[in-house]
């Protein structure tokens, strides 16, 4: 029973839920809100510095040559996924309301995950070098692509800060620390590898801090008055349907274009997943304080559902690979 619960809710998810409850009951206000806002900016810069420092140039070069795979992953992440969200707007708006619909569209515009996409590709016995290259490049491309794609899908009064300002702010707050971190690899790479276990806690703590600050501002602005319980329940269903559809579609496209099983696995796990680690700090830059809470709810829910579904899917792929090896 405990093992099943841990499969559904990992430690980070439980802490994330606790942070949302804390922000609901004890939101940061006044001077405390200003303090957390500055602390959050530092945490975001540290988070992306660490992402840059972890990025191996050798892994990028090893996977870069597989251009057909990367083209399909990036096309799905930044074109097909947003089109699916945009075409669903007439259904989503009356079902979820405008704030949560904007959150779903933001989810569709985000880059893919890095750590979990690579981890699931490894478990499923997929093309790991290609997954490292594709997932890492997706995060980098998303710094510019996400605000551009989002701007195309949203109305001008949707609570965003404006595309031009957003790209400048994202470049300063996310891209610059990322590049500095990557350029520091000759000095920091050994430290990052040696201390990977506790540095993961720093990574996750940064996300939790941003979530608390964002939800505090949204709660003060009346988050739970604008997001009723029926809409929240509908959002869970929307996220599940969306994930099932994109998992089916990425699998279909990988097979339709003649990729082998290892490449198919990489395409499915890199193209169907959306990054909470990038989405949370980027929302802080792209949206006004009042919009942050409803905008983040879809990616937080989708993140947990994708972990559960992809964990089971990776196990199935691994079993198929083992069965095929036994018959050889």
Automatic annotation (TrEMBL):
InterPro entries referenced in this protein's UniProt entry, alphabetically: Na+/solute_symporter_sf (IPR038770), Put_Na-Bile_cotransptr (IPR016833)
Pfam families, per the entry: SBF_like (PF13593)
Keywords for the protein's UniProt record, in alphabetical order: Membrane, Transmembrane, Transmembrane helix
Taxonomic superkingdom: Bacteria
The protein, known as: Bile acid:sodium symporter
Transmembrane segments: 7-26, 32-49, 69-88, 100-120, 132-154, 166-184, 205-225, 231-254, 275-302
Origin species: Paenalcaligenes hermetiae
């Amino acid at each position: 029973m405990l093992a099943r619960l841990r499969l559904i809710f990992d430690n980070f998810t439980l802490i994330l839920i606790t942070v949302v409850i804390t922000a609901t009951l004890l939101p940061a206000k006044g001077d405390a809100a200003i303090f957390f806002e500055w602390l959050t900016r530092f945490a975001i810069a540290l988070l992306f510095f660490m992402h840059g420092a972890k990025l191996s140039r050798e892994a990028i070069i090893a996977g870069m040559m597989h251009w057909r795979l990367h083209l399909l992953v990036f096309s799905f992440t930044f074109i097909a996924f947003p089109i699916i969200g945009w075409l669903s707007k007439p259904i989503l708006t009356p079902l979820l309301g405008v704030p949560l619909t904007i959150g779903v569209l933001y989810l569709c515009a985000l880059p893919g995950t890095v750590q979990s996409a690579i981890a699931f590709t490894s478990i499923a016995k997929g093309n790991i070098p290609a997954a490292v290259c594709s997932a890492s490049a997706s995060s980098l491309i998303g710094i510019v692509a996400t605000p551009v794609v989002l701007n195309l899908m949203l109305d001008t009064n949707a609570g965003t800060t404006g595309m031009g300002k957003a790209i400048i702010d994202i470049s300063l707050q996310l891209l610059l620390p990322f590049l500095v971190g990557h350029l520091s690899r000759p000095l920091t790479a050994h430290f990052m590898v040696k201390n990977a276990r506790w540095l993961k806690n720093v990574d996750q703590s940064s996300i939790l801090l941003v979530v608390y600050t964002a939800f505090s501002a949204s709660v003060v602005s009346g988050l739970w008055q604008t997001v009723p319980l029926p809409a929240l329940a509908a959002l869970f269903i929307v996220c599940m349907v969306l994930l099932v559809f994109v998992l089916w579609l990425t699998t279909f496209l990988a097979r339709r274009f003649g990729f082998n099983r290892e490449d198919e696995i990489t395409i499915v796990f890199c193209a169907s997943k959306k990054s909470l680690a990038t989405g949370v700090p980027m929302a802080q830059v792209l949206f006004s304080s009042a919009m942050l809470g409803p905008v983040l709810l879809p990616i937080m829910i989708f993140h947990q559902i994708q972990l559960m579904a992809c964990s089971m899917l990776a196990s199935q792929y691994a079993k198929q690979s083992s069965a095929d090896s036994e018959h050889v």
